[in-house]
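Hi everyone,

Forwarding the result from last night's run.
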Amino acid sequence: MADSLSSLLWAGLVFTIPLTLLSFAFGLTLGLLTAIARLFGPAPVSAIARFYVWVIRGTPLLVQLFVIFYGLPSIGILLDAFPAALIGFTLSVGAYTSEIIRAVISSVPKGQWEAAYSIGMSWRQAMSRTILPQAARVAVPPLSNTFISLVKDTSLAAAITVPELFQAAQRIVATTYEPLILYIEAALIYLALSSVLSQLQVRLEARFARYGGMLEARS
């Protein structure tokens, strides 16, 4: 049991955690750009952004991974398993976080834009110095939930041969024939990761709440 647990932890450390962090970082950047394109971009760019979100949110993530890893080689695009999974998760995170970011940016009162313009800020300055900091306070809970869900969703990468935590469990099961123990071990590791991230989310929300209270006191 100790050997299997160490193997699972190693797979989580080497593949699951890096895949989660990279996918979320790239996906969040893509989500921000997509949200801005939908809110402020010209009509063709906004239409492309809407189409991207519609396709990704309307199809299963597992199917998307299969299209990228198994489908693209038919047109000459060959990707290793980890980059294929990274692209798939990034596109998924980007679509879902774009809706969160779009909603929180839209929730900022128009008076904040007017106040920023009145003191001579450009659109970019108003966005980076006034709008996004206020939107971030509202976005922390849903974005944190997306990140925690992503940790668990990375188990789907096993379907395209990424040797992450869940596939490591499957491989050990194939040799030990102890599926109950192995899958419970994997579940407990996912549970531990999610629990740690949930606690970090609580602290982050509290910090942003204090920051928001300071801003309101100053105003």
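The chain has eight helices and no strands.

Cheers,
N.
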